[in-house]
Specification:
255 residues; two-stranded antiparallel sheet; disordered N terminus
Length: 255
């Protein structure tokens, strides 16, 4: 488990360093709209930026993404580090199970058309293949939307590394089905001595026509809040403007 959290910490450090605000004063929208993936040919814009971001590659943000229309806050009852503000019109469902050490959350838009799902950890006895977890998540996602058939895979990645008795596998898919686009990644850590697999999961899905907007307005702002808390992302009055850019950081009616 230690190596998992080390990996997450390193990823956070890379993203924070690479994406700090630069001197042009822009919001990075133009750069993001023209972004092309370094990992997957044929995709561009926010979809491509979010795909690369999910794989630890810096993207051209000139300021940290924040929620434009803040709604409810979520804090996991068993793991307070999993806490963030959602946009208005979204609800959160806590995931917790002692038997499998599952800790996570499902964030769903009230019309059930947008999902942001994150499991910090999940435990299985024995060695569980990364592809099997991905397939299970995709099947569950299609069930959520009432979809049948086989999704189209636009992008995929798979990387395996070994550190002593720990085998780490990262797998991901960018898929489309029934006018839905989804980014799914799974990180599995199999500890050979204990014969236990620890899993982290992320799923972000939305109607294809809305996906780029959801990346910028929902997926990136929520995930960014989990990286670190500083004045660049702290929004004390929940008015959508970070404290260090807000002349009245405790008054939601003034900025």
């Amino acid at each position: 488990m230690k190596s998992k959290y080390t990996l997450v910490s390193l990823l956070c450090l890379i993203l924070i360093t690479a994406c700090s605000k630069n001197d042009d004063g822009g919001d990075g929208q133009s750069a993001i709209s023209q972004f092309t993936s370094q990992l997957c040919s044929g995709i561009s814009g926010p979809k491509a930026a979010y795909w690369d971001y999910s794989h630890g590659i810096p993207i051209p943000l000139t300021q940290n993404p924040t929620i434009a229309n803040p709604g409810a806050q979520f804090i996991h009852s068993q793991y307070p580090a999993l806490g963030f503000t959602m946009p208005q019109g979204y609800r959160a469902g806590e995931i917790f199970d002692n038997a499998t050490a599952a800790i996570g959350v499902n964030v769903i838009r009230n019309d059930d058309q947008v999902l942001w799902r994150y499991l910090v950890t999940l435990r299985f006895a024995g060695q569980v293949p990364n592809d099997a977890v991905i397939a299970s998540e995709i099947n569950s996602l299609m069930d959520f939307y009432g979809a049948n058939g086989t999704p189209t895979v636009r992008c995929r990645e798979a990387n395996v590394s070994t550190n002593g008795t720990l085998i780490t596998t990262f797998g991901s898919r960018l898929i489309e089905f029934n006018n839905i686009t989804a980014n799914v990644w799974v990180n599995t850590h199999y500890e050979q001595t204990l014969d236990v697999t620890f899993v982290a999961i992320s799923v972000s899905s939305a109607p294809t026509a809305e996906y780029d907007n959801e990346v910028m307005e929902t997926f990136l702002p929520i995930s960014w809040q989990l990286l670190y808390i500083s004045n660049d992302v702290r929004d004390s009055d929940l008015d959508g403007t970070p404290d260090n850019q807000d002349n009245f950081p405790f008054d939601p009616n003034r900025q």
